[in-house]
Amino acid sequence: MGELDQQLRELVIEACQHPPGSPKRQRALTKVIRLASSKLWRDSSPHYADALQQTWVYFCQNVCEAKTGSRYDPSQSTVPTWLNAYLKRRLQDFYIDTQKQQATRALPQTWQTRSGDVEELDPIANLPAEPDVPPLLEEVRAWAEADKSGELRRVHIEGYPQINCQLLILRRLPPEASWKDLAAEFGLTVSTLSSFYQRQCMPRLRKFGESEGYL
Q1: What number of other Cβ atoms are within 10 A of residue 87's Cβ?
Q2: What one-character-per-residue DSSP string does 73-92 give?
Q3: What is the Cα gyration radius of the chain?
Q4: C-beta contacts of 16-22 below 8 A and 24+ residues apart
Q5: pLDDT tens digits, the chain, 215 residues: what are they?
Q6: d(Cα 119, Cα 193) in Å, to the nearest integer?
Q7: DSSP string, 23-61
Q8: CA 149 to chain centre
Q9: N or C, where is the chain less crowded by C-beta within 10 Å?
Q10: How far apart are CA 44 and CA 37, in angstroms?
């Protein structure tokens, strides 16, 4: 085990000795996030930012208590190894989901009811909602809701001032609305919403994360 891995292991043990939500646990976990970020898998996938966001949510929920999965076990793997395994699975999920959407658009599936009506079958299930919101995301939510400079509200999809970065960042926080649902709600395509989010909203979200020491 390298020096950084050992440091991360000790910080996790220290964090988990304090009650959930306590300042001491938050400080220790913030250090873990800052140090582990440089060791995480990176690629150019269009869904990388979303997968990374889900990974940090998973980290906060399971590093000390098993809330949505198995609790992190320092004896089984290092923190980066544990997080990278989860991150790669989420990237694979996004890839599979994209393939399903493309297949569905190319060949819509239908079925016939007993009354003879033909209805379209939607095979794309929404992503499961995260049951709890860790303090890290509470800070992101508070930042987006406050939007003190008004920047998040000013940056919007052309012709749709109501669909801005503030709205999309808040709607994409766990339990996040799926792009499919948002597209149906706003009458836009998934690619339009997702592309705008990646180009305009994620850089501002990432900048906030960096300013707070999370990235």
Answers
A1: 23
A2: -TTT--HHHHHHHHHHHHHH
A3: 20
A4: 16/63, 16/64, 20/64, 20/65, 21/135
A5: 789 999 999 999 999 999 887 888 888 888 898 899 889 998 888 888 888 888 888 898 889 998 888 899 988 899 999 999 999 988 888 888 887 777 766 555 555 666 666 565 554 444 454 444 456 777 888 899 999 999 999 999 999 999 999 999 988 877 677 888 888 889 999 889 988 998 999 888 888 877 776 65
A6: 27
A7: HHHHHHHHHHHHHHHTTS-----TTHHHHHHHHHHHHHH
A8: 24
A9: N
A10: 16
At 60, list the tokens.
Answer: 């906060």
Tokens 């400079």: give the residue. Answer: 149
Match 């012709």 to its residue by tokens: 159
